[in-house]
Specification:
heterotrimer; A alpha/beta (258); B alpha/beta (293); C alpha/beta (235); B: 293 residues; alpha/beta; 2 domains; 3-stranded antiparallel sheet; 12 strands; globular; C: 235 residues; Rossmann fold; 8 helices; 26% strand
């Protein structure tokens, strides 16, 4: 328990004019820990995710990250080059819509290999082999390596996006509704795959979802957001089995039982 | 005076030339960086070399000797009209001999004869942004240049090898200039890429429609991008030039009849003519000489 | 004898916000301890709060007041007030839980389901699979099922997978929520034996057993939960 947090978030707020995006959010995330942020549309969960992942500038507060050299850096005091480098090496970002995270007009192999080339790998054979390995890890047949994601199904695209993000062995991955927009059966497969990868690689992840089943299966810890505020947080099992707040109880009681 | 009086020297007004010269100076100062400039309407359509013509017009003086080539040839429509244009609006001397020229405006080729100090090679560029076909957003490509994020360029080469088994890009082959900016050498064949490396001549690139100027100063490193296991290679030809017998030059294919006969000849017409004048002959010329005897 | 689990003055109620903020008291003033090598069985009628106590101990339910102290690597940890991260760490290394139902994960093979708690503690996959195989064999789960995900198994088969998963580790405290409910006599006897073995190793066990025979066989002490129930007291 002596290891240090990977990410420290302190009083993070984002205002859109006088409207609250998210307010006074503080938490710490440790290596290997999966945090789910749940809440309905407009609750501020995506705003929070974007503020954490440097895609959106917060109004106040700080986000510090433990770099690979063990120093803590405030993300918003880094220059853009450093932030972008972090984004494509030590971090991943899985978009809800795979088209936002993939290059749709280049092959699956190049989609996975791009990050390697971006960090200076100049050996074609090695890049291709690594890409092939990753495709099989995300259960895409190796003979699809030269096909464009346009020809892939939604589930395959999402798995490709995950491979593209994980190829540089990031330590932290952000996911925005990773299973949204997929058929239920495809969702289950993807969740299972994600769960396995997160465990095997010891990834820390922040997953935004409105689906409590996704949170239950993937996350260790959860935060419930409403109107930009974190209204309840704790161990995922605890929040789901013994919700305290009125809104959380409403959310939990709204799950369809099959 | 002649009808020239109606025009300023070299067609463009002095303010415009100063503006373009400032852009050129900036481009020389930051090798490979695309400098935006206020491209003017020229009395020719886009795609006919309006960028190159504006650069040439801004640097040309009364003492200059101009050569204009298109695909290596001095006698094609585009080359002839641009040459005539400057004869008319600047009354400069023109030549077809590479060695005599002080300014060479080109589309698609770098002359075979090694360029020397004091010469300026002006390229006509259609699309200056090497990242354009992979990343359509200009805001993003600018950022990528600024932050030296060039992984995407290798994605393009990767796709080539994945599809064709080798890097199939044969022209507009991306280069890294002075170890910093990735640059599109305009639609020249990759055969000419090595000639750009540490050339003694100043190389200027003008894109009229896209409103960009960039440059490679003399003696600057120009390295073609590649992979360790798929290194950069230039095209090779099986036979020498059919007219002058030259090896290791870029050849054009010329169809001779509708029976499938063809020959390969130097794309650089001046180079070929000079060699023939010096007495070199290729296979197509040899028999006719015998017949004359 | 060491006392790895101490529960002190724990109270718990549910506030049902969706039903006019109705307050449902569950238990109050729960105090007991479990020594190592001891099996304590929670007694009392259904609905009295036995499962709730196990869930509070495991961290699935929060508590209103009181402490739940566990000896975690020689350090006393209060589950009731600990950071989720510490609770997860305690679950990984100190506190095991065998629930009534298996929460299955699609597509994961039975052998891997059982071996997972060991692997997450850093045991090699090979050794973990070996120990998982031993346990599954002992619980008479047919070998041809081991490579299948347990989602489609019968209730009894799932329960045996669940027991194997719960018993595979060397947790020093084990919570058992009716682990024998849907087992036949032969397998019940195996579980009784396994509980005996845990006791010999000095594990502290706290369980709910409705089957009287099993309860007699394993219990060192029966703790009547009625004494903690607001309703039980009233009754």
């Amino acid at each position: 328990m002596s290891d240090l947090p990977l990410l420290k978030v302190n009083n993070l707020s984002k205002f859109y004019g006088s409207r609250i995006g998210c307010k006074d959010v503080s938490f710490e995330l440790w290596p290997g820990e999966v945090l789910a942020i749940v809440g309905e549309s407009g609750s501020g969960k995506t705003t929070l995710l974007n503020c954490l992942s440097t895609r959106l500038l917060p109004s106040t507060g700080s986000v510090t990250y433990r770099m690979r050299d063990e120093t803590y850096r405030d993300l918003y005091h880094m220059n853009e080059a450093e932030r972008r480098f972090l984004m494509r090496t030590d971090w991943g970002f899985v978009h809800q819509n795979p088209a936002d995270g993939l290059r749709m007009s280049v092959s699956a192999g190049a989609n996975v290999g791009e990050r390697l080339m971006a960090v200076g790998d100049r050996n074609y054979g090695r890049i291709r082999q690594t890409a092939a390995d990753w495709l099989s890890r995300v259960e895409i047949a190796e003979d699809r390596i030269d096909d464009q994601p346009r020809s892939f199904s939604g589930g395959m695209r999402q798995r490709l996006q995950i491979a593209r993000n994980l190829v540089t062995s990031p330590r932290l991955v952000f996911m925005d509704e990773p299973t949204g927009g997929l058929d239920v059966s495809v969702q289950a497969r993807l969740l299972d795959l994600l769960r396995g990868l997160v465990n095997d690689l010891g990834l820390a992840a922040i997953v935004v979802t409105h689906d409590l089943a996704v949170a239950r299966l993937l996350s260790h810890r959860m935060m419930v957001m409403k109107d930009g505020h974190v209204i309840e947080q704790g161990l995922t099992d605890r929040v789901l089995d013994d919700p305290r707040e009125r809104y959380t109880q409403l959310l939990v009681s709204s799950i369809l039982q099959v | 005076m002649s009808e020239l009086a109606a025009y300023n020297f070299a067609y463009l007004d002095e303010q415009t030339k100063r503006m373009i010269r400032r852009a050129i100076l900036k481009a020389i100062a930051i090798p490979g960086y695309q400098v935006p400039f206020a491209s003017r309407e020229m009395p020719m359509p886009y795609g006919w070399g309006t960028g190159g013509v504006q650069v040439t017009a801004s640097i040309i003086g009364p003492d200059d000797v101009l050569k204009v080539i298109d695909q290596g040839a001095d006698d094609t429509t585009n080359a002839v009209s641009i040459r005539a244009f400057f004869q008319k609006v600047a009354e400069v001397a023109v030549t077809t001999h590479t060695g005599e020229a002080t300014i060479i405006q080109t589309r698609h080729r770098i002359p075979e004869e090694t360029l020397k100090e004091g010469q300026v090679l002006v390229y006509q560029v259609p699309i200056p942004e090497p990242l354009r076909f992979l990343e359509p957003r200009e805001t993003e490509t600018r950022k990528m240049h600024a932050l030296e994020e060039y992984g995407l360029m290798h994605v393009k080469l990767y796709e080539d090898i994945a599809r064709h088994g080798r890097i199939a890009t044969t022209y507009a082959y991306p280069v890294k200039v002075h170890g910093r900016y990735v640059m599109d050498p305009s639609p020249t064949p990759k055969f000419d890429n090595p000639k750009m490396h540490r050339s003694e001549a100043l190389q200027l690139f003008g894109a009229g429609r896209e409103k960009r100027i960039y440059a490679v100063p003399p003696h600057t490193d120009v390295v073609s991008l590649d992979f360790e296991d798929h290194p950069f290679e230039i095209q090779t030809f099986d036979k020498p030039c059919a007219l002058c017998g030259a090896n290791h030059v870029y050849l054009d294919e010329i169809v001779l009849d509708d029976g499938g006969k063809r020959m390969f000849v130097c794309s650089d017409t001046d180079f070929c003519e000079t060699r023939r004048a010096e007495g070199h002959t290729g296979e197509m010329l040899a028999p006719s000489q015998e017949a004359a005897e | 004898m060491a006392t790895p689990l101490i529960v002190s003055e724990v109270s718990k109620s549910f506030i049902m916000h969706l039903r006019g903020s109705l307050v449902l008291p569950v238990v109050s003033n729960v105090s007991f301890s479990v020594a190592s090598g001891e099996c304590v069985v929670l007694g009392g009628p259904s609905g009295i709060g036995k499962s709730s106590i196990l869930k509070m101990l495991y961290g699935n339910y929060g508590v209103d007041t009181g402490q739940i102290l566990l000896d975690h690597d020689g350090r006393m940890v209060d589950i009731a007030s600990s950071h989720p991260r510490l609770v997860l760490e305690v679950r990984r290394r100190t506190l095991g839980y065998v629930s009534q139902f298996l929460r299955t994960v699609p597509r994961v093979a039975t052998l891997d389901v059982v071996a997972e708690p060991l692997i997450s503690r850093g045991v090699s996959t090979e050794e973990a699979h070996e120990r998982a195989s031993d346990l599954l064999a002992r619980l008479n789960l047919p070998k041809d099922l081991w490579q299948l995900p347990p989602a489609t198994f019968s209730g009894g088969e799932q329960q045996r997978v669940n027991i194997a998963r719960g018993f595979i580790t060397d947790h020093t405290v084990l919570l058992l929520d009716e682990p024998t409910a849907s087992l036949d006599a032969a397998n019940r006897a195996v579980v009784v034996e396994m509980i005996g073995a845990k006791k010999e190793k000095g594990v502290g066990l706290l369980g709910i057993f409705h089957d009287e025979e099993v309860r007699e066989a394993v219990a060192d002490r029966i703790l009547d939960v009625r004494q903690f129930s607001p309703r039980g007291v009233a009754a």
